[in-house]
Amino acid sequence: xxxxxxxxxxxxxxxxxxxxxxxxxxxxxxxxxxxxxxxxxxxxxxxxxxxxxxxxxxxxxxxxxxxxxxxxxxxxxxxxxxxxxxxxxxxxxxxxxxxxxxxxxxxxxxxxxxxxxxxxxxxxxxxxxxxxxxxxxxxxxxxxxxxxxxxxxxxxxxxxxxxxxxxxxxxxxxxxxxxxxxxxxxxxxxxxxxxxxxxxxxxxxxxxxxxxxxxxxxxxxxxxxxxxxxxxxxxxxxxxxxxxxxxxxxxxxxxxxxxxxxxxxxxxxxxxxxxxxxxxxxxxxxxxxxxxxxxxxxxxx
Length: 301
Hints:
Elements: H1 3-15, H2 18-25, H3 29-43, E1 48-51, E2 54-57, H4 59-81, H5 83-86, E3 91-97, H6 99-116, E4 120-126, E5 140-145, E6 153-161, E7 163-167, H7 169-175, E8 191-192, E9 200-205, E10 208-213, E11 219-220, H8 223-231, E12 237-240, H9 241-250, E13 254-256, E14 265-272, H10 279-293, H11 295-298
Parallel strand pairs: 3-4, 3-5, 8-11
Antiparallel strand pairs: 1-2, 5-14, 6-14, 7-12, 7-13, 9-10
Helix pairs in contact: 1-2, 1-3, 1-4, 2-3
């Protein structure tokens, strides 16, 4: 019997509907539904009454909920009992992460974690292109996205990624400063090649979301190259804040359209769904979660 399915069922009973339970568990509603169906099939009994307003446990479901909570509590106690042993982590962690983000914001926490666990080894695959986490045999993937629709992976949100529209003072002097997203149509914009429909820039403004189709002479899969195009006065760039800290301090670029914020993206940790998450993966997840929760570090991403 899968503990993940039991945890999903118990959380659904507590939340009273699948949508809220799925959100709390960072999975989709369809995944939550499949887990509960698998649990019902395994037990050969219906656990939930489903209505348009939500879900309620059946008599059997109410009984199983109480026993399920005890099972989950016992498992948590068992994990705590071996914590002193698991502190000495061993083996290999195979990780994939965006190269640009890793160069600027992953090196420090990962090296700090490695220093705490000298018996661990690391196999790091850094690429700004999306990779097959399960097919590639990765223990953990870091991904930056506005949201996730990959139902084959478990996701943990680590940080909010903010972004800005920037240009160099020289570009703005030569071409003028756009006052609204629509005016970007008259400017040269650099595109990020790894994002589908990257020519469509989205903004959150006073009247809600707005999408603008822009054009430009440079397309690249490198954030460094996008920043270079902006700093040199060739184009306007849309970049995450972590790319821009130094350039903003030096005045190489300045933010524009500040009343039109880019919709937030998030840094997610993704890992394959397993009955029991390896202790070394859980330790790294907890470490990164605590690291990026620090307000000073969050301000840099």
